[in-house]
Specification:
mainly alpha, globular
Length: about 170
């Protein structure tokens, strides 16, 4: 798998997915938690990647932890909601279980603090965000040099467990 530097859009998309995908997964979770023969031969990242390619997305196979946590960024040019729906379906098909309500509530609190931090760091016009996500779509100042630093610093302070992996 190639390693790439995280772009601002990747971080932002992953932040949004951090909450959106697990929310969808929680509604669809199933399974006993015991490994099956399928689990021991092919990881969920490989299964998820194959399923997403079948759904029309050009992605590489992510690591299993990224699929299990729901932290996956849509490839450039992909429609975000469509990617999330397909990602949730593929994760379910790969046997990934959903996220707890407590985790989802914690993510909502964390990302509300991240958005507030961004505003306090010179981007007062940063738009209101949907609960549990961060998006810069339609925000023209997201292209400014200092914005990426502010976003990174705020994520590090208020959502330090945020991980991203560009699968595109």
């Amino acid at each position: 798998m190639k390693h790439t530097t995280r772009s601002r859009r990747t971080v932002l998309a992953a932040a949004a997915l951090l909450c959106a995908l697990p929310l969808a997964l929680a509604a669809c979770s199933s399974g006993s938690g015991a490994p099956s023969a399928k689990d021991t031969t092919v990881g969920v990242g490989v299964e998820w990647g194959a399923c997403m390619r079948e759904a029309g997305f050009e992605v590489e196979d992510p690591d299993d932890a990224s699929v299990e946590s729901g932290v996956l960024a849509a490839p450039p040019g992909a429609e975000q909601e469509e990617f999330q729906r397909a990602g949730a379906r593929c994760a379910k098909d790969a046997g990934v279980q959903g996220t707890s309500k407590a985790d989802k509530q914690e993510w909502e609190r964390q990302y509300a603090k991240v958005a507030s931090c961004i505003r306090e760091n010179g981007y007062e016009d940063f738009p209101e965000q949907r609960p549990g996500g961060i998006s810069t779509e339609g925000y023209p100042r997201a292209e400014e040099v200092g914005f990426e630093t502010a976003m990174h610093d705020c994520l590090a302070e208020f959502a330090p467990d945020t991980k991203t992996q560009n699968v595109g």
